[in-house]
Every structure is written in C-alpha cells, then in structure tokens.
Amino acid sequence: MLVKLSLSGIKSRFKDYLVLFSGLVMAAAIFYMFEALATNRSFIKANATFSVAPFVFQFGSVLLAIITLVYILYANSFLLSMRKHDYGLFMMLGAKAGKLGQLIFLETLVIGTLSVIVGLLAGWGLTAVVGHLLIQRLDATAAHFNALYWPAILITVIFFIVLFILMALINQRTLRKTPVLKLLKSTAQPTHVAVKPIRTAVKMIGGFVSLAIGYFVMHQIGVFQLAGIGIALVTIVLGTYLIFSSLFTWLLNRLQRREKFTSRGLNNFILAQLNFRIADYNRMLSMVALLFALALGAITTGMGFQKNIQTYTESAPYDVVLHNPTAETKKAAQKIDTKRSSQYTFKVKKQQVYFVREQFDQAPLYVQKNWRKDQIIPKYQLMSGKEMTMAEAPSWQVSLRDLLLPRDFQKDIKLVDQAEFDQLSGQSHTVKAIVSTDFFANLDAIKKTTQLDQKQNHSPANYAIGSTKYDFYQIMNSVLSGLEFMGFFLGIAFLAMLASCLMFKILSGAASDRVRYRMLDKIGAQQRLLRQAIAKEIGVLFILPGIMGIIHVLFGLQMFTVTKLLPEAYHDLWLPFLIFLVLYGLYYVLTVKLYQKIVLTKEP
C-alpha cells in the first residue's frame, strides 16, 4: 500500500519532479565520470602522461560532492513542500505519523534510486566520450581504459544513496514536528511584504559593505591566504542575500511609481507579480546567483588554465636532453629545428659525477637565476665554466644535476680540468642538451627523440622527475587539461542544479497564476501581450541572479591573477561567457515555454 501511495504521489507531480530530477541525474553522471577517470588504476599505471590528471578529477569529485549536498538539501525542501498538503490530508483522515514517515522515506529513495540509475547510464556514455577526448589531448594510450568501471559505480551509488537516506530521515523528522494545520496551509500564497525604507536602506548598505569586503579580500588573497577564502565566502554569501532582499525590492517599488513605465502594455501587472513574489524568492535567487558564479567561474578558469600551458612549459631551458645518444636517437634529433645545442662529457665514480670545466667555457650552461616575487616561471642565464667555479655551487650544480639520468640525481657534482678528467678511471658518458627554435612547432620530433632516449637508457617514463620543456609540457598538459575538463563539467553540473532550482520555483507558482492570466484573457488582453508578460517576468528572475553571478566572477578572477595561477585571467573572457550564457538562455527559453503552456492553455 505504501509503495502504491508513494508511486502515485510521484506520478501526480511527475512534471515537477522531472525538473529537479534532471539536476540530480546530471550530478550523478558527472560524479561517476570524475570517479571513473580518477580511480582506474590499471589505465593510470599504463599511461605516465595521465598520472597527474586523476588528482585533478578527484578534487573535482570532492567539489561536486559538496555542491551536490547543498543542492540536494535545497531540492529536498522543494520535494517536501510539494507534498506537505497531501500529508496533512492523510493525517486528517487518520493516517499515523509513523506510516507517513515510511511513505516519505520510500518516495525520497525512489527518486534517489531512479536519478542514480539514469545518472550512471548517462555517466557511462559521458565517460566514454570525455575519456577518449582526454586520451587524445594527452597523447596517451587507450589501453586498460574502460568507460564502465565498477569501483566508480560503487562509489557513486554509495555516495548518492547515503545522501538520499539522510534526506529521507530529515523529511521524516520535519513531518513529525510540523503541526497538521501548518501542513494543510503549506500551499497558501506568499503575503506581500511592505517596504520599510530604513530597514531596506540598512540591508542595502550592509549588502554592499559585505560584498566590498569579500571582493577586497579576494584581491588581497596573497595577504590573507587561506583565511581569506573563508572570509570571502561568508561575506559574499551574506552580501548577495542582503542585496536581493533590499536593492531589487526597492527597485521594483521605484518602477511601480513611474506611471510612464507602468502604463505601457502589461508592465504594471508584471511588476505587481514580481513585487508579490520577491520576498519569497530572495533566498532562492541568492543561491542561484552563487551557483551561477560557481558554474561560470569553473568554466572560465578551466579554459583559462589550458590557455596558459605554453607559459608553464617555459619552466625549463632545454627542450630535449639526450644521454649517450645512439645513431637512431641522433637521427631523430636531426629533425628538430635546433637553435642551440650543447654537449658535455662526464664520468661517474661512486657518489661523484665529474664534468670537464673547459667544455662549459665553449658551451655555457643555462643556470637558474634567483627567484623573484613577480615571477611565474624561473629565469635562466648562461654561465661559463670559469663563472661556475667562482659562483655559489648549489645553483649550477642543480642545473647540471637536472641533465643527468635519475640514477645519478643524488650524487655530488664536481668540475675538473681536462687533464684531471683524463686521469680518472671509468667510462666517459655524454649528455647533449638541445634548444629548438619553436618548441610547439617541433613537438612531434621532440617527443619521438625523448621516447627513444628513455627507451635506450631504460629510464622510467615518469616525467615528473624530468627537467626539460617536454617533461614540463607533459606535466602541465596533464594537469591543465584535467582542470579544463573538470572546470567545464563542474560548470555544467552547477548550471543544471541552479537552473532546475530556478525552474522549479517559477513553475511551482504557475498553477496559481493560471487564474490571473485567464482573467486578463477574458477582459481582452491579447495572447501576444500575455506571452510577452510571462517572458519579461521570468526574464527578470533569470537576469537578476545572472548579473550578480557575473559580478562575482569578474571580481573572483582577481584571486587567480594576484596569485599568478592565471596571469591573463581576463584574456578572451568572451568565449566561456558566451558558452555559459547560451546554455543559461536555453534553460530560460524552456522555462518560459513550460510556464506559458501551463497558464495559457485553455480548458476544453
């Protein structure tokens, strides 16, 4: 019986559930994709170029989990509010609170289970597409990659089912503590809240001050460090809510007093609708604005990181370093358009590595300069053998050690004259350092040459210990490509969540608005004007959090420019903004169409 009641309850509110269901499905799909890419150990082990990206996707999973928790808490309040009146009726008819608690538990779990199942199916397909795109981007091998990864499925199922069980328990507790009369009145219309000038002014000033503090802290994040993130989070959340509960309410009232504006078309009706609802919408619009900022910020920074790969690649002075190159390796190296090359001879005796000092006079070594605060990547200078013997040992020793194979990294470096070098016993080794005219133009030849050198010297394909531009390119390509994909799909997940919350809140009031629009229709209002009125009313509810979210992002990017994580964070900003606003616009159009269908469809 309980199962029948729960299924009938879901069926009767299917359209409302479907809106929120879409956000849950998107969250589950992207969560599974992140976990599948982050936990597939066989695939990661077979691809050194992918070894850093899993940490990025695991971080993305944590961020998504936190936002999903907030979203489910908020969505859960919607789901419960839709059924409160029905539960009140059941209790009036003699149903026990315990039985209703079981009913709520079943309904919540049914919705959760369905969203996870559909999300996993969508995530399977998404992982297959994104995984192969990422493999191509990182030039990795598809060996051991499987879009259907059971450990990731298990993690996703456990996470979401635990969340929904938690929500079901919260719903049970809420129902038991809510009086029957309050449950029956849950569908009552919001009351109009009169604007109190002094109170509104205080809220407005408090909102602007809170936002100013948050924006200032983000600009000075280097000074405030981790504490700054906490301060900015609190002040921006508080400021956003205060602005929505004061400034926009004040603006609506000011517009209502402008007869020239209200006399046009149905503007007066639209303002009355908004003014009537704005107090009930403040909290929801604030949350949507914050999710909007997170979504747009994730897409913007993700694309921004990928654009900086060339900057970070310059962290090393040499494009390729060859160790005792064979004829095959030398032939591959000849295909590199070389700007400068240097070859050095050395011998290894126990824990000592000896180089010939005169060779550095003929071909000076790139040695890293002292680090400055405003630097993003290290700077290098050419240093001769004579200068090296006079300079502090650690600087040039580190640069020389970077040219050696991993097995010699920990050994001491010494410069000796040619005569002394000849007296040393042991085999002579050579190391050749190459600088190309254009790294990215010669990338294919550089890659082939590096791989041949690694194969010849049985060097592990673990570039994290390397020191050439190609090594850094692989490291940064793995990290930044992972950040790009993570940012984009986090943005999509956040967008789905914020849009579903906004759509549901708007559409939940459509049934009561049907009477008002039919009255306008009966007194002669044109269908065209009614449709325009709906588009404008919903447009305001989409635009307000959008504007606030964009402002948050524009100030938030300061954190990345100040910390040098994204030196050109504002460059080509139009592209991620355009992508996001197009997707956001599609949700707006869908909401308008659904709303129009509900309130303007005439009964037979």
From TrEMBL:
Pfam families registered for this protein in UniProt: FtsX
Example of a GO cellular component annotation carried by this entry: plasma membrane
Membrane topology: Multi-pass membrane protein
Transmembrane in keyword set: yes
Keyword Transmembrane helix: yes
Domain ABC3 transporter permease C-terminal: 60-179
Sequence intervals crossing the membrane: 17-35, 55-82, 103-135, 147-170, 201-218, 224-252, 284-305, 485-507, 538-561, 573-590
Primary site of residence: membrane
Assigned protein family: Belongs to the ABC-4 integral membrane protein family.
Gene Ontology process terms (BP): transmembrane transport
Name of the protein this chain belongs to: Peptide ABC transporter permease transmembrane protein
InterPro entries registered for this protein in UniProt: ABC-4_Integral_Memb_Prot (IPR052536), ABC3_permease_C (IPR003838), ABC_permease_BceB-typ (IPR027022)
Subcellular location: Cell membrane
Keywords attached to this entry: Cell membrane, Membrane, Transmembrane, Transmembrane helix, Transport
